[in-house]
Design a protein that fits this description.
About 45% of the residues are buried. The chain has helices spanning about 60-65, 90-105, 120-130, 145-150, 155-165, 165-175, 180-190, 200-210, 215-220, 230-240, 255-265, 280-285, 285-300; strands at about 1-5, 15-25, 30-35, 40-45, 70-75, 110-115, 130-140, 245-250, 270-275. By secondary structure, the protein is α/β, with parallel strands linked by helices. The chain is globular and about 55 Å long. Helix 2 (about 90-105) crosses helix 3 (about 120-130), helix 5 (about 155-165) packs across helix 6 and helix 7 packs across helix 8 (about 200-210). A 9-stranded mixed sheet has the order 1-2-3-5-4-6-7-8-9, sandwiched between helices.
C-alpha cells in the first residue's frame, strides 16, 4: 500500500493536493483518489454514497474548513475518480478500506465529518478502534434507496444482478442516470433550492455516472448492498457504544422516512444535534450553514 501525488492537470479537484492511495483487497489493487487541503489538525471528510458520489460534493465544505484543519476528502472505492472494478461491492470492502486508509494516512485520532451512508462505517470503526476523536454526521442514513422504498432483499438482489449484467445492465443503468432523471432525484430529496439544480450542475453529475464501471458500486448502494447495518436498533446500538463526542446535522426538509431515522438517533443521550435548511444533500447545498452549525463542536476541547 502506498500513496502518490497526482498531477493536478489529470485530476479534477477543489484546489488541494490530489493523491492516490493504492489499496489491496482480496488480491486486487484498487486506486483510491483523495485530496488534501489546508493546515492544522487532521480532519477526514467523507462524501455520501450515491450514484453521483464524489469528493467534489464536499469540496466547498473542505475549503471552508481548510483555514483551521488539514482536510482530507476521499473518493470511495467504486466512485468518483477511484477505481471502479466489477467487484461484488458490499460492506466488508468499505469497512476494511476505511480502517486501512485511516491507519495509513493518519497517526493520531482524528475528527471525521461524514455525509449520508458513510455514517454506519464511521460508527463501526469508532466502536472498533480509537480512530476518531470527534464525529460529525451530516444527514446520516443507513438504509439504501430500494430497501427504504420497501423492496425485499430478494427483489433488490434481482435488480442488482440485472444492472450488473453486461448489455441489459448497461441499458438499465443509462436509463436511471439520464440528466432528466438525475435532476428529478435532486429536486425530490437531495436539494431544496431548485435554482441550484442548473443544467451545468446536472451535466457534471451525469458525467460522474458515465465513467467506465460506474454502475457496479452504484447498483450496490441503490439496492442496499452497501447497508452496513440492516435494522434501526443495530444503528442506534453503534451510537450507544461510542466513547467519543458525536454531533448530527439534520436537514429540515429530509424525506419523511429518513427524518424519522435521524430523529431516533438524536433522541439518544449525549448526542448533540442541529436542524438546518436542506435535505439529504445539505453538505453540498449549504456548506457555509453546515460550518456555522458545527464549528463550536469542532473547536471545543471538551469531550
Amino acid at each position: 500500500m502506498s500513496t502518490n501525488v497526482l498531477s493536478t492537470s489529470t485530476a479534477i479537484g477543489f484546489g488541494g493536493v490530489v493523491q492516490e492511495y493504492l489499496w489491496n483487497f482480496e488480491n486486487q489493487q484498487l486506486r483510491v483518489v483523495y485530496e488534501t487541503l489546508g493546515k492544522g489538525s487532521p480532519l477526514l471528510l467523507l462524501p455520501s454514497f450515491s450514484s453521483v458520489s464524489t469528493r467534489l460534493e464536499v469540496g466547498e465544505l473542505a475549503k471552508l474548513l481548510a483555514p483551521n484543519f488539514q482536510v482530507v476528502a476521499i473518493d470511495w472505492p467504486g466512485f468518483g475518480e477511484s477505481s471502479r472494478p466489477s467487484l461484488n461491492y458490499r460492506p466488508e470492502i468499505y469497512q476494511q478500506f476505511l480502517e486501512d486508509f485511516v491507519k495509513a494516512v493518519f497517526n493520531t485520532p482524528i475528527t471525521v465529518v461524514a455525509a449520508g451512508h458513510a455514517a454506519s462505517y464511521v460508527l463501526q470503526l469508532a466502536v472498533k478502534s480509537a480512530a476518531f476523536s470527534k464525529i460529525v454526521l451530516l444527514a446520516p442514513t443507513w438504509r439504501g434507496p430500494l430497501p427504504t422504498m420497501g423492496a425485499s432483499q430478494q427483489i433488490a438482489g434481482i435488480v442488482r444482478g440485472l444492472v450488473r449484467s453486461p448489455i441489459l445492465g448497461q441499458a438499465l443503468y443509462k436509463l436511471n442516470t439520464t440528466q432528466s432523471f438525475l435532476s428529478f432525484m435532486y429536486r425530490r430529496h437531495v436539494f431544496t433550492d431548485a435554482a441550484k439544480i442548473t443544467p451545468s450542475f446536472i451535466e457534471k453529475k451525469w458525467h460522474t455516472t458515465q465513467q467506465p464501471g460506474a454502475r457496479f458500486a452504484s447498483a450496490a448502494f441503490v439496492t442496499g448492498n452497501l447497508d452496513a447495518v440492516h435494522e434501526q436498533s443495530d444503528f442506534l446500538e453503534l451510537v450507544k457504544s461510542l466513547t467519543v463526542p458525536l454531533m448530527v446535522v439534520i436537514g429540515e426538509s429530509s424525506p419523511p422516512k429518513s427524518r424519522e431515522e435521524m430523529n431516533a438517533l438524536v433522541a439518544l443521550p449525549g448526542v448533540r444535534s442541529v436542524v438546518i435548511p436542506g435535505s439529504l444533500g445539505l453538505h453540498e447545498e449549504y456548506p457555509a450553514v453546515v460550518l456555522e452549525a458545527v464549528q463550536d463542536f469542532l473547536f471545543s476541547s471538551e469531550n
